């Protein structure tokens, strides 16, 4: 019975120690474990590094980072970053976090490269590459507008402009020329990739349509992909009104 109690306590302590870390308040005393950061994205890991730097008095140049830490009561910039020094535990934690960031950035760049390759194949109407490399089925190339809508998204959105937060990336662009309003969007959530095309007849500006009609024209397309085994695979397409 005593051994069972000790085992439960041991597991409970390890569970607490392995909880996902929110800041680096203990990074000067304890080495981080992979279980504490395995679900964190690049930006969250960079936040932890910045948090550790801030606790040592680092003066940040980026306004959004500086003003965040300036709001923390414990933040005391030393004024001269050259005087900043880290002990062995702190440096090991910084290196540990940076190594994880480098791995995630490499994986992210592979995905973005593959999306860009898909874009090139689409804009060049390269059916062989699209079918072979991205699992596009033959019915994608039927004579309708859906494929042109997809190309329209890829023409208007630059992959390098995707912004990231945690494990999500997004870039959205709205074009309103009074006659119609189009929204193009690419979104990445973990291993899922979505491409959206939204169309609305008319403008967001009031009274822009001369030929008003009860048959309000509005439709949405979404293409779904999955990043799996370093390959971007087409899953399906959905249209709604």
Automatic annotation (TrEMBL):
Please verify whether the record's keywords include Ion transport.
no
Domain of life the protein comes from: Bacteria
Q: Which residues form a coiled coil?
A: 94-121
Kindly give the Gene3D superfamilies that the UniProt entry links to this protein: 1.20.58.1690
- Residue intervals of the YARHG domain: 21-102
- Which controlled-vocabulary keywords does the entry list? Coiled coil
Note whether Transferase occurs among the keywords.
no
This protein is called YARHG domain-containing protein
Question: What organism is listed for this UniProt entry?
Answer: Paenimyroides tangerinum
